[in-house]
């Protein structure tokens, strides 16, 4: 039996590394570029955010804006605990950081790449580079059920085919899969930063607020976590999670919307007033600009002063009600007009792809064409930032591997 895996990314390589060595079984991975596991290499700033330390599957599933119906099955079979054990038995220890993200203890993505490659080679997997697939044609009368055509004019045959190409940014890039009878959910970007062109806050680029709350104006969903101010606008985990949750809505409005940031995280107006009244009593003679009682960076605090008509000589005891109210508004409900997004093709993900209704979650096999399987980002599944998208790659790749050799 010959198994063809299309795409040497996380899902494809993990599937290949989990297919048993058996007499008569040949596994070939076809990769359109000259490298394997490129997204693994750059993820997590080159450290590779392998998974997340969330072992409660219902909670874990909620970290994925799309694909929950499929994930409820795949994550129960191969979740973060199994991922940790899989790497551990192959000499790679993962560590959890305070926010639950898990990385190799080496803090080097090459550790993950080397582990997967070594396991693939141990199992006799063949990898062919620079093999871009142009078509897959069922050949029911042939010796092998599938014929695969490549851009270089060559062809190959296989008994089973696993598609792990990752997500495509344009709908027409799925045409070769639609030709097999599959429908797609039109792709839109997920996990992107918010552009706020020529806004004065960009002067604070490089500044990070460790615990802010972010939401799109008019929505109820709030994401908390670090927010990074950049020269083009806002980035950081809370922004990226918000972009994932609202990916399709933001695409529909052409990325023109308002974002509301609470720089004090979960603090309310009542919390703010309690701190301000405390400052009036205990630090009344101190200048407001010099005495910041909130857990935000000094530069951001100083940036707020002129916006709230607070002068360098304004003391806490003399803070006018109008200035106090403006300060509350800017700290708790700071609103910015977003005009566009920034994505980074090597690391960020796509919302959309093969409709999960057309995939058997127990096997990852196509409901349209027996012998055709899918895993990873090619499916309409995507998670927020934090290791969730890689976990989907490992889970779906493992499930497909078990089914293809069954």
Task: Give a description of the structure.
With about 400 residues, this protein is α+β, with helices and mostly antiparallel strands. It has 3 domains: about 1-190 and about 350-405, FAD/NAD(P)-binding domain; about 190-265 and about 335-340, Beta Barrel (Elongation Factor Tu (Ef-tu), domain 3), CATH 2.40.30.10; about 280-335, no CATH class. Helix content is about 30%, strand content about 25%. It has helices at about 10-15, 40-45, 55-60, 70-75, 80-90, 110-120, 175-180, 235-245, 245-250, 270-280, 300-305, 320-330, 390-405; strands spanning about 1-5, 25-30, 50, 95, 100-105, 125-130, 135-140, 145-150, 155-160, 160-165, 185-190, 195, 210-215, 225-230, 235, 255-260, 335-340, 340, 350-355, 360, 365, 370-375. The strands form 6 sheets. Strands 17-16-13-14-15-12-18 form a 7-stranded antiparallel sheet. Helix 1 packs parallel to helix 13 (about 390-405). The longest helix has 17 residues, at about 390-405.
Task: Give a short overview.
The protein has 406 residues and is an alpha+beta fold.
Which features characterize this protein?
Elongation Factor Tu (Ef-tu), domain 3, 406 residues, alpha+beta, 3 domains, 13 helices, single chain
Catalogue the unreliable spans. none
What count of helical segments does DSSP give?
A: 13
> Please, how many domains?
3
CATH top level label of the largest domain? Alpha Beta
Helicity, as a percent range: 25-40%
Oligomer: single chain
Assigned CATH architecture of the largest domain: 3-Layer(bba) Sandwich
């Amino acid at each position: 039996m010959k198994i063809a895996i299309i795409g040497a990314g996380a899902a494809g390589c993990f599937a290949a590394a989990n297919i048993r060595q058996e007499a008569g079984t040949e596994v070939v991975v076809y990769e359109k570029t000259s490298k394997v596991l490129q997204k693994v290499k750059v993820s997590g700033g080159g450290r590779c955010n392998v998974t997340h330390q969330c072992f409660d599957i219902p909670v874990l599933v909620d970290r994925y804006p799309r694909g929950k119906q499929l994930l409820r099955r795949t994550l129960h079979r191969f979740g973060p605990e199994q991922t940790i054990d899989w790497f551990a038995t192959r000499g790679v220890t993962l560590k959890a950081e305070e926010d639950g993200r898990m990385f190799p203890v080496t803090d080097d993505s090459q550790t993950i790449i080397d582990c997967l490659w070594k396991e693939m080679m141990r199992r006799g997997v063949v990898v062919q580079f620079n093999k871009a697939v142009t078509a897959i044609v069922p050949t029911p009368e042939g010796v092998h059920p599938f014929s695969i055509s490549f851009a270089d004019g060559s062809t190959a045959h296989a008994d089973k085919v696993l598609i792990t190409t990752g997500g495509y940014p344009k709908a027409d890039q799925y045409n070769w899969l639609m030709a097999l009878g599959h429908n797609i959910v039109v792709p839109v970007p997920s996990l992107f930063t918010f552009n706020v062109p020529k806004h004065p806050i960009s002067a604070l680029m490089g500044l990070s607020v460790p615990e802010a709350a972010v939401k799109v104006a008019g929505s109820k969903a709030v994401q908390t976590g670090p927010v990074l101010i950049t020269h083009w606008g806002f980035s950081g985990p809370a922004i990226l999670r918000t972009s994932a949750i609202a990916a399709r809505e933001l695409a529909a409005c052409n990325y023109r919307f308002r974002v509301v940031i609470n720089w004090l995280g979960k603090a309310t107006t009542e919390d703010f007033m309690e701190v301000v009244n405390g400052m009036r009593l205990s630090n009344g003679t101190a200048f407001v600009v010099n005495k910041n009682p909130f857990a935000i960076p000094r530069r951001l605090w100083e940036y707020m002063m002129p916006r709230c008509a607070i002068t360098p000589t304004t003391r806490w005891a003399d803070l006018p009600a109008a200035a106090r109210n403006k300060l509350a508004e800017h700290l708790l409900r700071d609103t910015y007009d977003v005009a566009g997004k920034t994505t980074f093709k090597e690391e960020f993900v796509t919302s959309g792809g093969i409709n999960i209704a057309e995939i058997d979650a127990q096997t990852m096999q196509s409901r349209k064409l027996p012998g055709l399987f899918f895993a990873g980002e090619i499916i309409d599944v995507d998670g927020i930032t934090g290791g969730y998208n890689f976990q989907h790659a490992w889970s779906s790749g493992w499930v497909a591997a078990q089914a293809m050799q069954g």
